[in-house]
Amino acid sequence: xxxxxxxxxxxxxxxxxxEGLATLEYDPSLLGRRNITADFFPESRDDWNWExxxxxxxxxxxxxxxxxxxxxxxxxxxxxxxxxxxxAAEGLRDLLTPNGELLPLVRPAGEYFAYNCTKIVxxxxxxxCDAKWFREDxxxxxxxxxxxxxxxxxxxxLSIFRMRELCNFVFVTDIFVDRVxxxxxxxxxxxxxxxxxxxxxxxxxxAKRRRERxxxxxxxxxxxxxxxxxxxxxxxxxxxxxxxxxxxxIARFQDELDxxxxxxxxxxxxxxxxxxxSTKKGKTRLVLSCPDCKVLVKxxxxxxxxxxxxxxxSVFLRHGPWDDTAVQEIAI
Length: 332
Known about the structure:
Elements: E1 6-10, E2 22-23, E3 62-65, E4 76-77, E5 81-85, H1 86-96, E6 100-106, E7 112-117, E8 120-121, E9 130-133, E10 142-147, E11 160-163, E12 166-173, H2 174-182, E13 189-194, H3 202-213, E14 216-219, E15 222-225, E16 229-236, H4 244-261, E17 273-280, E18 283-290, H5 293-306, E19 314-318, E20 330-331
Parallel strand pairs: 3-6, 8-11
Antiparallel strand pairs: 1-12, 1-13, 2-3, 4-5, 5-7, 6-7, 9-10, 11-12, 14-15, 16-18, 16-19, 17-18, 19-20
């Protein structure tokens, strides 16, 4: 007897090649809520009878930002809302449309759709779950669930859905996962939540799986961890605080970095990606992750030498992840 597997659908967060989408800061709610993201979730998490509002009757194609590569078929919006490329939407349509709404997005390159999942199921034996409930009287929504006690007889036909207990997440079964893999779609993160032996925390199992799997890419020096090393480009500010002109120039530098490092195919050699910038103590720093910092700085050398800035920027090699504060910075 085949046992259905349940996964939580999550954004890819450990590979810059699969960065997601974001809404613009001024995008208002269509339902009179705090913002557009809130429209995809119930107003109250602790109400057992919550519902998801349908948005298609009032939807206007939403403009989004983000460095989404053309091969990314499953980016999230604001790390919270699933989205699908045109290729994914067409290949998964028979699973997606009976269980929610595909809502068009405005993108300068490629068609994408936000997904409003409206299918809600009650498949858990709450009394057996390892969970924190909103109230003692069950049934009740959960603050969290670390071990799911699922009633398998209720899983027939399910492919993509929300659980009544956890309104903020979208779940899928192996019906959905198998289709994604058979179509060769990229950019999906499936976190297994069931089945596990009783008491096994699915989060710990997933963390272990991620450590074992890693995220490797083809770099000029071979197959390497996508964020194994890092690089910092540091600009001294004229009077300690960043001016409007300096901010404008650095924003231009960021765009130029993105243009140089963006790849259009997973078969292309990957050099690195801009993670962000910070300004303090009279300096602005651009931080990049990369598989090999020496290779990255060699690629960027002509661009670095061409920068128009009052003083020569400082460059630091880091033989470790960009977010590890213990990594030594080597000035070059």
